[in-house]
Amino acid sequence: MLSSVLYALLTACCIQNEQAPMSSSLRSILAEPGCVVAPGIYDMISTHLAISAKARILYMTGYGTVASHLGIPDAGLASFRDMVDRVAVMGRAAREAGIPLVADGDTGYGGLLNVDMTVKEYERAGASAIQLEDQVFPKKCGHTPNRPVVPKQEMADKIRVAVEARQSDDFLIIARTDARSDQGLEEALDRMAAYDAAGADILFVESPESEDELRLIGERFPHKPLVANMVEGGRTPVLDARRLGELGFSLAIFPAIGFLSTAKALERAYGDLVATGASAGKDDLYSFEEFNRMIGFERVWEFDKRHARD
Questions:
Q1: What residue ranges define each of the domains in the chain, with the CATH number in brackets?
Q2: What span, in angstroms and rounded, lies between the C-alpha atoms of 102 and 58?
Q3: Which 8-state DSSP code applies to residue 223?
Q4: pLDDT digits (tens, 9 = 90+) for 216-238
Q5: Spatial separation of the C-alpha atoms in residues 259 and 255, rounded to whole Å
Q6: N or C: which end of the chain has fewer CB within 10 A?
Q7: Which helix (H) or strand (E) holds 173?
Q8: Pick from 77, 65, 67: nearest CA to 104
Q9: How are strands ordered across the β-sheet holding 101-104?
Q10: pLDDT digits (tens, 9 = 90+) for 275-295
Q11: How far apart are CA 35 and CA 32, in angstroms?
């Protein structure tokens, strides 16, 4: 039986698969009061569902994308090409729907020349922003242990190169630091100040460990959009967008809710199928008819009708 969590999510998201109206740019959305939620997407089904839910911003999660595409941990094992190809597919759908896509660019996949190429390719692929982090390569998921960081100046240089490499000022550079877990909040804040000075458009302190720490981050950088990473089961308390907005955050990414809900649902559905030999609980499944609409079969059928031979 599908989990009630995913069933509710799918029901809410996809009763209709209308394209979202053309939205404002990412920069203008983040300039609005309060905090905007960005669901984590990791493949094209999750992308379509998030678009149908009328999300205003999409977040391509590195963890989920690597797990979905390659079935391996988010530990620096996926290549630049693996990721930019995924950006291109999801970016096309986001662009057609008029929704900005924020894409995880890990460490930039190498040195300064790699960062230059990564920014150019992510922008060309249809992302509206790239997230770059200051971990030592190979990087690890931000809510797992043992994440050493590069020297502050090395990352500041990457941010400067990223800003220089973009073709449009509407393509935003997100600077993330992972220093909090091993070096403490003050070091993380100091790094954020350096990356801010280097030209980052959006600042992201990964894995603060209390609401007080979130408040301090918001107080230190009131002049720039801030990212809060809400990972269910992670190191940071999961708050709603209203509270995060009060604390000074502009963007709340929920990278894991999609793949965690899907994994739970599939575990139950496949387990029931293998145990019983039948697709028990079919009333809880997402409608096959609605899924056909969501994935775009209606256009295929209409195309076939227009070009059918008598």
A1: 4-263 (3.20.20.60)
A2: 6
A3: T
A4: 999 999 999 999 999 999 999 99
A5: 8
A6: C
A7: strand 172-177
A8: 65
A9: 202-205, 172-177, 129-133, 101-104, 58-60, 36-41, 251-254, 227-229
A10: 999 986 667 888 889 999 999
A11: 8
